[in-house]
Design goal:
28% strand, alpha+beta, binds magnesium ion, binds adenosine monophosphate, 9 helices
Length: 352
Amino acid sequence: MKHRLFPVVFFILLVLSGCLSAPPSGGGPAAEEGPAVRQFFAMDTLMSVSVYGPQGEAAVQEAWEVLTGLDRLLSRTSPDSEISALNAHAGDGSWVPLSPETAELLSFARQTAEDLPGAFDCTIAPVMDAWGFGGEDRHVPDAAALSARLALVDSGRLSLDLEAPAGRLEVPGMAVDLGAAAKGYAAGLAAQAVLEAGGESALLDLGRNITVLGEGPSGPSWRVAVKDPQDMERHLGVLSMRDQTASTSGGYERYFEENGVRYHHIIDPKTGYPAESGLLSVTVVSENPALADVLSTALFVAGRDEALSLWRSRTDFELVLCGADGVVTVTEGLEFDFRGEDNGYTCQTARR
Ligand code: AMP
Ligand code: MG
């Protein structure tokens, strides 16, 4: 499915997919021509890749190949994927051959768990299954069953041989779920493919992971909306971005209700229950798409104080944190690149 759409249609598509870009009005690269666009379903989400410039069609094709290829390797639900093979052999002692990409992503996810213990773990799959996330039958699990599943969550027991490359889960019943990391990692490789194909200006919308390259259609930067986690029809504000990714995690994305209580899909690996850190959503802006994705999930679990203290210790990402207390905290690197909307939140700037 490949289209050349008029700019106005493109604008509507971006708004619908959660990403707001100013309508082209001259200025940006080949804005009058419109981008090459492809929309497709991969990694459990609707993806959209748009590339401006003469190489747009070729670049979109390359990005699509990268994204659908990674989906085939990393999916936990497709029985033929490398992750399914790794999970199927958990505890039987055999090394499962992996592509360099799968091995690299697993290694990055394992490192994230080491850096942010208690907030992130890609071996969370048994707990996700206990809650029925990923299937139709979502329910609050029995406490004993949950604690048995939680005992299997330990990415320290995911062994990797990066030379081979190959992987091994050391305990029967362990399983990997890369839902918190795969889209960001994939965005990085797809962006690289777009640039190598000669794409000049691009937007990759991979379901709450928005990566922009080069100039926007109407000026030097892209405008990307951050949704209000309490009202999908509204925005917290608009980011001005260039050659960056904005990744957002929030409990509002996927949840079910039981006996009047809402249970969402981002799990606190310390308890096995949906994280309750006082945050409603976390948006991470970074030049590193894989980092943006893992951190948005991990910092949603960790909460505002820990998120800000990690931010103060590094320089490779910025944050928009929306709290249940009605406070939106924006880190100072975004002071001039995030325009909050008048929507009842108190906005504060965090400084180093
Ligand atoms: P995201 O939308 O990037 O925040 O990722 C959420 C997905 O990551 C969930 O649907 C699960 O597949 C997985 N997940 C949930 N909790 C965690 C966690 N604490 N650490 C790593 N992955 C998680
Ligand atoms: Mg994530």
